[in-house]
Amino acid sequence: MAAFNVVLGCVMALLIILFTISSIARYYIKFILFIVLSLLSASLPIPLMLIRPFDPRNALIPAALSRLTSRMLGIRWTVRGLENVDDTRGAVVLLNHQSSIDLFVLSELWPLMSRCTVVSKRELQYLAPFGTAAWLWGTVFIDRGARSAQTVLNQQSLAVKEHKRKLLLFPEGTRHLGDKLLPFRKGAFHVAVDARAPIQPVVVSKYHFLDDKRLRFGSGEVVITILPKIETENLSKDDIPALIETTQMTMQEAFTRVSAETKSRLAMQQKHD
Fold it and tell me: pTM of the predicted model, to two decimals?
């Protein structure tokens, strides 16, 4: 046991040294911590989730633990536009997709929007125990690109309309760290029009502290902006292309503006440091 403690101590000391002096090591260590702690945050409350399976409220405890993890990794969050949230009705909530750490964004939004349901790719369902936990808090799993995906999404129209669910989707479909949002897919907009439910755009400022190409994962501030709803009540399928264009333009403008703001503050902080 003494030898084990010595080895463990040496390994920990080495990791701390690497974390301090190497940005590449810091990148991998932070992502490993993100993965491990996210799995723990999701799986530890599973016994409690079994009491009320498929209830969106099951995600509240994992979300709280996830928020602690994000702060431990040096990410600060500010949420704006709470006055735009209407919990008396359902909505299709659209978010820009940057990285796997967007999971932290969901953990920030979950307690602020009631009856949230996330749409995720099918592969995540088989990532036990995280997939099991996500299933228990009501995640809708789809096979990307398959005809069945649209069928599943269409079925969610009833949940949005009748049960006042907030259906959270990433309309870009693919995560990226660029300055321009990728073209939006149509599925989410079909759901909104079918349900006569509003689109609720949510824009997450650029992760200036994260660079997958250069293997950089620093600390920084992220602003989540909940934009005013875009109504669809009087729209038809023929209006979807224009609806997509309006939504993407609105989100792109907000993304550019808020990302410039957080970049400026980061530069000022680095200058003072």
Answer: 0.90
